[in-house]
UniProtKB/TrEMBL annotation:
<dbReference type="Pfam" id="PF00560">
    <property type="entry name" value="LRR_1"/>
</dbReference>
<dbReference type="InterPro" id="IPR032675">
    <property type="entry name" value="LRR_dom_sf"/>
</dbReference>
<keyword id="KW-0677">Repeat</keyword>
<protein>
    <recommendedName>
        <fullName>Disease resistance R13L4/SHOC-2-like LRR domain-containing protein</fullName>
    </recommendedName>
</protein>
<dbReference type="Pfam" id="PF23598">
    <property type="entry name" value="LRR_14"/>
</dbReference>
<feature type="domain" description="Disease resistance R13L4/SHOC-2-like LRR">
    <location>
        <begin position="40"/>
        <end position="114"/>
    </location>
</feature>
<dbReference type="InterPro" id="IPR003591">
    <property type="entry name" value="Leu-rich_rpt_typical-subtyp"/>
</dbReference>
<keyword id="KW-0433">Leucine-rich repeat</keyword>
<dbReference type="InterPro" id="IPR055414">
    <property type="entry name" value="LRR_R13L4/SHOC2-like"/>
</dbReference>
<dbReference type="InterPro" id="IPR050216">
    <property type="entry name" value="LRR_domain-containing"/>
</dbReference>
<dbReference type="InterPro" id="IPR001611">
    <property type="entry name" value="Leu-rich_rpt"/>
</dbReference>
<dbReference type="GO" id="GO:0005737">
    <property type="term" value="C:cytoplasm"/>
</dbReference>
Amino acid sequence: MGNKQIKQHLETAQKTGILKISLQRLQDFPPQLKGYPNVLKTLDLSQNRFERIPEEIGRLTLLKHLNMSGNQIVELPQVLGELMKLEVMLMNDNMIAKIPDSLSNCTNLKTVNLSHNQIGEFPIMLCGLKHLDILDLSRNKITSIPNEIATLHVTELNLNQNQISNLSEGVAACPKLKTLRLEENCLQVTAFTPRILKDSKISILAVDGNLFNSKQFSDLEGYDIYMERYTAVKKKMF
């Protein structure tokens, strides 16, 4: 995309608050953004070739929707924590290995997609964010779910296709968690304790592709109570 086209996009964005420059093989932020007025509410730079997010993004304090999926980003900068109005952050399909602690400041986050990256540890800085509703961490390298998960406020958590072998019983205390996806991990059937099956609010628990079969799962203490929740949700859908 030439400078002329970018200039046109930027001029339009000043009126709409929406800047979308995707599928353009960009490796660097448009330099015009450095002195750009702080009007953007949506920034979509997906499907480019960014390896890093520049510090200048911290100036865009009105941003609500940030999409940088499908790039080559390795690390997220601490300045993302300055985007206090951010509601949607899409960073899937990158090479991100590290999540900044500063994201705990983004208290308006509702949806975070970090799927298909290189994340090795569960991002506990997202626990405690009371508006966070959907968190997708599928296709990463997470091995353990820590006790801090008890303060995660999402209704849906996707952890499919990781390397999880340890699941904290704290997941039973998640105040809103209804859907938990743990397919294709390294979990033993004993990870699903009676407390998780009986006392949690989880009504959809996807566990195929772990180190046990469906009969072993259905034989667990508390499975029948979990199935009551599952059936009640399915009835509401039809």
